[in-house]
Amino acid sequence: MSAHRVVRRARPLLGTLVEVGATASACACLEEAIDAVDAAFERVAALQQRLSRFVASSAIGRFNAAPASTCVAIDCETRIVLAAAATLRDATDDAFDVTLGSGARAWHVDARGLHKLAKQVQIDLGGIAKGYAVDCAVATLEAHGIGGGWVNAGGDLRAFGSLAVPIDLRDEIEGGVRRFATIEDGAFATSRRDAAPGALRHASVAAPRCLWADALTKVVVHTADPRHPLLARFGARAWLHARPVASG
Amino acid sequence: MRIVVAGTTLAALASAPASAFAVDYLTLEQAAQLMFPDADRLDAREIALDAAQLQSLDAQGLRGRSARWTVRVARRGDATLGFVVADAVIGKFELISYAVGIDVEGAIRQVEILSYRESHGGEIRLPAWRRQFVGKTQAAALRVGDDIANISGATLSCTHVTEGVRRILAIVALARRNGSLGP
Questions:
Q1: Is residue B91 in some structural domain?
Q2: Is B125 part of any domain?
Q3: Angle subtended at Cα A7 by Cα B42 and Cα B2, rounded to the nearest 5 degrees
Q4: DSSP conformation letters of B114-159
Q5: A90 touches chain B (CB under 8 A)
Q6: Residue ranges making up the domain that contains B32
Q7: Which helix (H) or strand (E) holds B103?
Q8: Residue B8 is assigned to a structural domain of this protein
Q9: Any CB–CB contact under 8 A between B106 and chain A?
């Protein structure tokens, strides 16, 4: 462990802080690790342009602005994220809803593109796109020959390769962190939901891919069920956290 | 996937005291070098915004906050390549310092986070707590010997950083218009 030299950087992306860590095994590799980290950030920035509802030219931006009965052409990344969203929606009786209540069933994807079935429906991929972006950034690091590292998008993270990454869980009430786990070659995400005043639900999910870890935290905080059947389907494991006790 | 959960029970986790968390990513000089690799020097220029300029920032929805700023001008020989400005913002639990690189066209070249600090119990708002980090550079993580730890939690918002970047863009544009940053 102590032999690792790690290039660790962070940039504001996806509406949060995205951190990338890459191990460099020898001095000569340091430059390569820096290049790989830059490429990972560029990948995330490109995905942000494609998946954000705040980018008018993105498929999601065009879908939201379009009238009913429109079919919007979508790129491969948007298709992957929407397909995952549809799978989760169907498996949770619409509880996982990327339209945030504006029409869970008022969109569908087929070979032609993304169909808008009602005028008022708006899509926001905020509950799933960060996890997907983390997976893509990890793929970029691996393609650059990085042997171990991680990508963390504001708390949704994935570690890969020969590195066991310690995970600290934020105290959502008081701030500060507590050591929760160590993860190797897997993803971990955390979500909170303030169901009612004083009724904070706080859950984490570990999964092989961050797309599923990110999205499944929403299912677990919504259902309060850390043994939800969907978890096994994606090789995931969940924890519902006890309300942290205020410490002095 | 291999995950090893710390401690014996989750109840034990909840009652353990929270600790602070800190990462130093880059020094300002390292960030400037990444943003402007061709620069052979950085000239620091102090700029002071007057009341009218602060008002003009307010009018753009970018509250001036501070009247005094240091702008690093990245140069190669006589040529100006761009500008680098560092700033820090405080969120609910976190203190984030960052640097903005701006090219000669006035567009953002890059934004790099320089350091991240997270505290508990509102310490982040205590000047004494923040002062302990002044001058800290690389590899100064609070949790000694454990410099790859990651935080997981409900998604951190970077609204303060985004607002700060917009403010810095406007300040550099103002300073260039009135000649404070040279030709």
A1: yes
A2: yes
A3: 160
A4: EEEEE-BTTGGG-HHHHHTTTT--TT--SSTT-TT-EEESSPPP-H
A5: no
A6: 17-177
A7: strand B94-103
A8: no
A9: no
Which of B148, B161, B163 has the most A C-beta neighbours within 10 Å, making it the best mutation to test the interface with A? B148
Q: What is the pLDDT of residue B9?
A: 57
Q: What global pTM score does this model have?
A: 0.91
For an interface test with A, give the residue of B110, B150, B162 to mutate (most A CBs within 10 A): B150
B7 found inside a domain: no
B141 CB near a chain A CB, below 8 Å?
Answer: no
Could you give the domains of chain A?
5-48+129-240 (3.10.520.10), 54-123 (no CATH)
Tell me which residue in A8, A130, A207 faces B25 most closely, judged by beta carbons.
A8
Amino acid B39: pLDDT: 97
Cβ-based burial of B177 (10 A; exposed 0-12, middle 13-18, buried ≥19): exposed
Answer yes or no: do B154 and A190 touch at CB < 8 A. Answer: yes
Does residue B95 belong to the interface with chain A, where contact is any CB pair within 8 Å? no
Sign of CA dihedral A126, A130, A135, A136: positive
Residue located via tokens 């340091």: A30
Q: What is the pLDDT of residues B45-69, one digit of tens each?
A: 999 998 888 888 888 888 767 889 9
- Interface membership of B151 toward A (CB under 8 Å): yes
What would you report as the CA-atom Rg of chain A, rounded to the nearest whole angstrom? 19
Question: Could B152 and A190 be called an inter-chain contact, meaning their C-beta atoms sit closer than 8 Å?
Answer: yes
Q: Considering its fold, how many domains does chain B have in total?
A: 1
Gap from A67 CA to chain B (nearest CA, Å): 31
In chain B, residues with a C-beta closer than 8 Å to the C-beta of A153 are 155
* Interface predicted TM-score (ipTM) of this complex, two decimals: 0.89
CB-count exposure of residue B99 (10 Å: 0-12, 13-18, 19+): buried
